[in-house]
Amino acid sequence: MLSTLIYRSHLVDDVPVKELEQMVIKANSHNELYGVTGILLFNGTHFFQLLEGPEEAVLSIYAAICRDPRHHNLVELLRDYAPARRFGNTGMELFDLRKYDKESVLQAVLDRGTSKYQLTYSDRALQFLRTFVEAREKENYFEIPPADYWDFISDDTSLSQPEALATEAETFSVSMQPIIDPFSCQTDSLEALIQPVCEGSPLDDSSALSRDKIYRNDLQSKKAAFALAKKLGIKAQTLSVNLLPMSLVMVPNAVNFLLSEIEANGLVPEQIVVEITENEVISRIEEVETAIKQLKAAGISLAIDNFGAGYAGLSLLVQFQPDRVKIDHTIIRDVHKSGPKQAIVQAIIKCCSSLEICVIATGVEKPEEWMWLEAAGICNFQGDLFARPKLNGIPAVAWPEKIN
Fold first, then answer.
1. How large is the average pLDDT for residues 307-315?
2. Which residue has the higher pLDDT, 5 or 125?
3. What is the mean pLDDT of residues 181-206?
4. What distance in Å separates the CA atoms of residue 189 and residue 177, rounded to the nearest whole number?
5. Burial 116-143 (b: 16+ CB within 10 A, else e)
């Protein structure tokens, strides 16, 4: 199967440019051996390379490229399949953009094509090439330092508290995980992560529970979250709880139940954020919308969790106008290496900025993910890089500090 892969990277500062010719000669020989062809562009700082060939060979060569210490900040822009090669006449050819004007380099690349009919200006891979040559996306090249540029120091004096002892009668266990602003060293809110003590998860469709029981358990579990918040004495700290949107309509008086439990545990609606997950199909949208209006009218804020990984997508932004959007961890994972993920995150940031919606990155586990997302404009983060969930307690936060 003929595979196409395009990536962009940044030349390491102390690598002399004169090494490029020798590097290309070796790459050309190596690529021909594996039946891989393509084009390499260099603008004095960044590389742009298009590789074509058998999928296994392309991926093997790209893995070796990723290990090459002469460049960093590799971002995979495209991985696709094609019926014919665009560049079949050479193993690899280098175009130094400093020696060409924009139009002549594009024509020169076309002239190297296997077929002018196959390689047209409407070709998607060629559009990536044109964008690089014209430097139209250069403002979105976020050059992040290596992972060891930062250390993460646990602050045991922050919000960390002793565990609140659970009682035998409790049905749900609750762990707390903070949502933080790393640069200001501030905790934005705490999320209560709830699990059943005995039964299968109330959110698990594959369990033996009926849908009605799932929704009742989902709603009842918030009682445990509010009770733990009271035990821990979170005072005016914001508390986030996850809720299946259909629980608001399938359980009678669901909104009143939440409000009464908030009051019973010494909390106020203004410090509660209800996170509705995008992973569930919402079948009675008008009723859900009415319930959400009641929550917001009482002072409760609304967040969309798992944004980008569910069924409803952007329509939830239109219908519910949330206060927060939490980008799903599957999009966040290795975002610093993925062009498609970066484009999606940037689109979410731009859209939410226009609507004055706070964007939160969830599931952050690597320093490189956090650095890229921070450079892109996100300020609020949640993930094991900063604090793992703590059962019946509030974990200490590991704040980033530059290593001298």
1. 73
2. 5
3. 78
4. 9
5. eeebeeebebbebbbebbeeebeeeebe
Per-residue model confidence as pLDDT tens digits over 65-122: 999 999 999 999 999 998 888 887 667 888 888 888 877 887 887 777 776 555 566 7
pTM check: above 0.85? yes
Q: Which helix (H) or strand (E) holds 274?
A: strand 272-277
Could you count the other beta carbons within 10 Å of the beta carbon of residue 83? 6
Is residue 342 predicted with pLDDT exceeding 90?
yes
Domains, the chain, ordered by start: 2-140 (3.30.70.100), 147-402 (3.20.20.450)
- Taking alpha carbons only, the member of 387, 395, 388, 391 closest to residue 164 is 391
**How many CB atoms are located within 10 Å of the residue 107 CB?**
10
**Which residues does residue 38 pair with via DSSP β-bridges, in sequence order?**
51
b (16+ CB within 10 A) / e for 16-55: eeeebeeebeebbeebeeeebbbbbbbbeebbbbbbbbee
Instruction: Please calculate the CA angle 177-161-325 and round it to the nearest 5 degrees.
Output: 20
Whole-angstrom distance, CA of residue 152 vs CA of residue 383: 13
Using CB atoms within 10 Å of the CB of residue 403, give its burial: 0 to 12 exposed, 13 to 18 middle, 19+ buried. Answer: exposed
CA angle at residue 387 from 385 to 391, to 5 degrees?
140
Q: Distance from first CA to last CA of the chain, Å, rounded?
A: 48
Sign of CA dihedral 379, 380, 381, 386: positive
Rounded to the nearest angstrom, the gap between the alpha carbon of residue 394 and the centroid of all alpha carbons in its chain is 24
pLDDT tens per residue across span 347-361: 999 999 999 999 999
The owner of tokens 């603008």 is 43
